[in-house]
Write a structure and sequence with these properties.
The complex is a heterodimer of chains A (406) and B (582).
Chain A (H helix, E strand, L loop, with lengths): L3 H20 L5 H15 L7 E2 L12 H12 L1 E6 L3 H12 L4 E6 L2 H13 L7 E4 L5 H7 L4 E4 L19 E13 L23 E4 L5 H12 L1 H12 L11 H11 L3 E3 L2 H9 L6 E5 L6 H4 L3 E3 L8 E11 L5 H11 L38 E2 L3 H18 L1
Chain B lengths: L4 H20 L22 H7 L4 H36 L5 H8 L1 H4 L2 H12 L10 H6 L5 H4 L2 H24 L4 H9 L4 H29 L3 H7 L7 H10 L3 H26 L24 H26 L17 H4 L17 H34 L3 H10 L2 H4 L2 H12 L13 H25 L3 H9 L4 H12 L1 H17 L15 H10 L3 H25 L12
Classes of the chains: A alpha/beta (406), B mainly alpha (582).
Pfam families (chain A): SBP_bac_1
Organism (chain A): Paenibacillus hexagrammi
Protein name (chain A): Extracellular solute-binding protein
């Protein structure tokens, strides 16, 4: 009996190994395929510069950059996309019709998990994805991935002149689409927006009548509240506009934190997500307000919500939340990747069908030659720019402030 | 192969990730530049521990949530013990009618994702606080349920208990069914009352199983995330697990690591308590190799009422939510009145229609579905067999090992996977298995890795339940076999395995269900080629395609029910029968 546990141990591990290795044999190609890909891309373009604007691979000579890319991409055969948004799946469907011979495989991952996945893969020498579609996470994507050369900016030369700022030169990458979080009201109960200033929410009239997705569980909502703290001067000015006097801080650092504190004191209700928040005010008659993302406008009918977003609030309506496109470092199917990004950007003229999933109500494509489906053009929206560097620094503090005061 | 390879392997897949997490909490990492100007990535620091345990944020970040977590853990294990053991006793030890039906139904709440149960709760009990369509109680009786009933502690405990009481039911049920009724008869003849028999004979025998299940359910509740997120958020009822996920999502990785280590320590303390409660007598032999027949406890005039009450409760807990979900898959528009104009099979067999869900076809017409189905069946099938066998073997080691420190070590270590958040564990597995290690090829990107992580993640349950099953067997049987010339392996296969058949099937089943539902663990490990049913479900859920999501749930539940029925039949492991079957 004494040495039985040893026998058991080795028995267990050998069966586990034998079964895992043989039963799933088909999967084992993954390793060698990945290794081959590493070699080929290392031999090819090994650019470490975060901005790539090259379009045509040297190998093929052809009339347009698209044709050349397509020729090369057909040899690669496929393109692997990690995406936070299902919109990439919709773009993939039209892409495969337009460019037969290239298979698009989309994996859906949350933005923070994508960072972990890609960083760990790359550190282990596996270069799996070609294209990344992701939102920011309080500046972490920029700091932890872009600045480390893991996600690369790719803006084709012929599309660049049409891309709006800040996404052409200032932002970390090209934005396929932009949304933002704002207040919504019940469109049966009110015929026009019942508030015009964020500070309205701190008055007794709105006590217990404002819903938000819990920013403690969802950093994209925390970004909005952190932005109030970043732009405290704007918040102070809006306070004066509303109440006619200078703001008085009650033990808080600035007008941004003061706003959060007063909002929490006014019994802000936190729920699990954007959908729950719109259910709360939109499913039946309601005099309450909800903070939710504009992208939900597209689902109003399907979800049966009687709700409308407010597109003008003082001091600013909200902060931009962009869906960025990146090329992955050492992308194994680089030409196909570039071709797919071009497709999602709507090609050179902005007319390609790949842009359609991104050009929706509640979602703006930041190109000057693409007509928006929204009543208001993107540059007419009164929004703060996304200051990733400031948000990255301040967000842990705002989160601490939030959980301590809630 | 060297005899210690097995342990080395276990250490690599379990201890190494824990070590990595622990060591990361004592170092500055790149992300910490946002937290402190003094951060030098790679250097030693106490910062993260001080921040969690002794800063002005500690109360909100740790102490308050940990208090909630422990309360929920304790209450949930108590409540699910009452429900699970009660049911187990009724179906194994009494003459209640319809036992098989009830046994079959008892597993259903566990098949439903826990958040479905939470949503069902809200459907009934939500009050005006969270707006929207009022709950049934409010709209029918015009009474607004108080916040404590609608959200927070009470509903969290109730939902988790309903969901997890199946652990008690199956583990304790398997133990109960091994007790020879003659023991009870003898006591009864000697004049003992029914309650005395329960307390003095039945309870001591099933105590190891009960304690195992207590530990399992306690730790599961401690680390549960989805239910507290949904039911706790409106009243700001934070638990450690919800805090931990928040830290992780906001890129405060070291803080998340500190929180998960603290969770781990709480559970290690609980296990230490378990050993103390078991005391020196760790073995409660009930099976001496003789088939146990005989009569059951007569319920007398309570026989039929008991069955009716249990069935009604089951219907409310299991069948009703299931039927609601099923009905929803046929509704063209969610929430619209049911009628012929709103009836559709589109979500099952429809082609692509641009007006519905951006052209997403019905499930059975979706080419990815077939791949996902194959992958899921492979992962769940292989990993549940491996996990059940491995659990019995390791459970054997924890119980029988003459070096008791080893048994305890394995018992403790096998618990770690429950407490490392699935996301962290799987992220570490990318690093650990993206390159070939020792004699292992690079497993990342293959189904093998998904099988491996599923087996590892279920270790706590399989080892604990396996150990509880082995504890019931007398050592004499094996010794007799060995004396008779059988190798250890033969005696395991010919004696232990048949006698623990019910436990084996329970283990297999629970792991299978877990693997079919598993999401969080594999979400960042899957590649397009290793898509599973749950990742597809997740995709629909994220896009708010409710009906498609419900179709997926129905399919998953149907598969599990079929496997359940088959394994009970083929494994001859009917809980309602004594060992050996009749």
């Amino acid at each position: 009996m004494r040495s039985n546990w040893k026998t058991i141990g080795s028995l267990l591990s050998s069966t586990m190994l034998a079964v895992t290795l043989s039963a799933c044999g088909s999967g084992n190609n993954g390793g060698s395929e990945g290794a081959a890909a590493v070699q080929s891309s290392a031999a090819g373009e090994a650019s470490t510069s975060p901005v790539l604007t090259t379009t045509a691979p040297a190998a093929t000579v052809s009339a347009s950059p698209v044709d050349a890319l397509y020729e090369q991409a057909k040899k690669e055969g496929k393109v692997i996309v990690y995406s936070t948004s299902g919109r990439a799946n919709d773009a993939a469907k039209t892409f495969m019709k337009q460019y037969p011979g290239i298979q698009v495989e989309v994996s859906k991952v949350k933005s923070d998990q994508m960072m972990d996945k890609v960083a760990r893969e790359q550190d282990a020498g596996q270069f799996n994805p070609d294209v990344l579609v992701t939102k920011e996470v309080s500046g972490a994507v920029d700091f932890e991935m872009v600045k480390q050369g893991r996600y690369l900016k790719y803006l084709p030369e012929d599309i660049a002149p049409h891309e709006d700022e800040p996404f052409r030169t200032q932002a970390e990458s090209v934005a396929g689409y932009a949304e933002f979080r704002t207040l919504w009201y019940n469109s049966d109960h009110y015929d026009k927006p019942p508030v015009t200033n964020w500070w309205d929410l701190t008055t007794p009239e709105w006590k217990g009548k404002v819903y938000t997705a819990d920013p403690v569980g969802d950093p994209s909502f925390m970004n909005l509240f952190s932005t109030f703290a970043v732009h405290a001067d704007d918040m102070a000015a809006a306070y004066k506009m509303k109440f006619g006097k200078d703001i008085e801080l009650h033990g808080t650092e600035n007008a941004g934190y003061e706003f959060i504190k007063q909002l929490l004191d006014n019994q802000l209700v936190t729920l699990d997500g954007s959908t729950d928040v719109l259910d709360a005010i939109g499913k039946k008659d309601s005099d309450a307000l909800a903070i939710a993302v504009t992208g939900e406008v597209a689902d109003l009918k399907e979800e049966g919500w009687h709700a409308k977003p407010i597109y003008d609030l003082k001091p600013k309506t909200s902060v931009v939340d962009a869906g960025y496109f990146f090329l992955a470092k050492n992308a194994p199917h680089e030409a196909a990747a570039k071709l797919f990004i071009r497709w999602m950007l709507g090609e050179a003229d902005g007319q390609g069908a790949g842009i359609e999933p991104f050009n929706e109500v509640g979602s703006w494509v930041p190109r000057d030659d693409v007509k928006t489906k929204n009543e208001i053009a993107f540059d007419q929206l009164n929004l703060w720019n996304y200051d990733g560097e400031a948000l990255y620094k301040i967000e842990p503090k705002v989160r601490d402030f939030w959980i301590k005061n809630k | 192969m060297a005899p210690d390879t097995g342990l080395a392997f276990l250490s690599y897949v379990v201890l190494w990730p824990v070590f990595m997490i622990v060591s990361s909490t004592f170092r500055w990492n790149l992300q910490d530049l946002r937290l402190s100007d003094q951060a030098i990535p790679g250097h030693f620091t106490w910062f993260h521990w001080i921040r969690v345990l002794a800063s002005d944020t500690s109360y909100a970040l740790f102490y308050h949530p940990v208090f909630h977590s422990i309360c929920v853990g304790a209450a949930t294990s108590l409540l699910s013990m009452v429900i699970g053991c009660g049911l187990a006793w009724l179906v194994t030890r009494t003459d209640m009618p319809l036992k098989r039906t009830i046994t079959f139904l008892a597993v259903i709440p566990y098949l439903l994702p826990a958040w479905v149960l939470s949503q069902a709760w809200l459907m009934f009990f939500k009050n005006e606080k969270i707006g929207g369509v009022p709950g049934f109680i409010q709209s029918i009786f015009h009474i607004s349920p108080p916040d404590w009933l609608s959200y927070g502690f009470v509903p969290i405990v109730l939902t988790l208990s309903l969901h997890d009481c199946v652990y008690f039911f199956l583990i304790v049920g398997a133990a109960l069914s091994t007790i020879n009724p003659q023991l009870e008869e003898a006591a009864s003849l000697a004049g003992a009352r029914r309650f005395t028999i329960l307390r003095r004979i039945v309870l001591p025998v099933v105590l190891p199983s009960i304690l195992s299940a207590v530990i399992l359910v306690f730790t599961k509740a401690l680390s549960s995330y989805g239910v507290p997120q949904l039911l706790g958020t409106p009243v700001d009822y934070q638990m450690i697990a919800t805090m931990l996920y928040s830290s992780m999502r906001s890129r405060m990785t070291s803080e998340a690591s500190v929180l998960s280590i603290l969770l781990l320590l709480i559970s290690v303390a609980a296990i230490a308590f378990y050993f103390r409660a078991l005391g020196k007598r760790r073995s409660f032999v009930t099976v001496s190799g003789k088939s146990a027949g005989g009569s059951a406890q007569a319920l007398g005039r309570w026989r039929n009422p008991a069955a009716v009450v249990v069935l009604l409760l089951m219907a409310a807990m299991a069948v009703l939510p299931l039927l609601v979900l099923l009905a929803q898959t046929f509704l063209l528009k969610e929430g619209a009145p049911i009628g012929p104009q709103n009836f559709t099979l589109h979500y099952w067999i429809g082609g692509s229609d641009p007006d519905i869900n951006s052209g997403e076809p019905g499930i059975l017409k979706n080419p990815i579905f077939l791949l996902a189905l194959k992958n899921s069946l492979k992962i769940a099938g292989i990993s549940s067999i491996l996990a059940a066998a491995g659990g019995l073997l390791l459970g054997y080691v924890t119980v029988r090992s003459k070096r008791s420190w080893l048994g305890r070590l394995i018992d403790n270590v096998s618990f770690f996977p429950y407490l490392i958040p699935g996301i962290s564990l799987s992220a570490m597995y990318i690093t650990m298995f993206a390159k070939p290690v020792l004699y292992l090829p690079a497993l990342y990107g293959t189904l093998s890795l998904l099988v491996l992580i599923t087996v590892v993640k279920e270790l706590p349950f399989t080892v604990k339940a396996g150990g509880a099953a082995i504890m019931q067997l007398g050592e004499e049987l094996e010794e007799a076999a060995v004396v008779g010339g059988a190798s250890w392996l033969t005696s395991f296969r010919r004696i232990l395995l048949p006698l623990t058949r019910k436990s084996f099937v329970s283990l297999f089943l629970l792991v299978f269900i877990g693997a079919m539902k598993e999401m969080e663990l594999i979400i960042i490990l899957v590649t397009p080629r290793t898509e599973t049913l749950t990742t597809l479900t997740f995709f629909y859920a994220e896009r708010n395609y409710t009906q498609l999501m419900n179709v997926m749930l129905m399919i998953i539940i149907a598969i599990v029910l079929i496997v359940y029925a088959l394994s009970v039949k083929l494994g001859k492991a009917d809980l309602t029968q004594g060992i050996g079957g009749q």
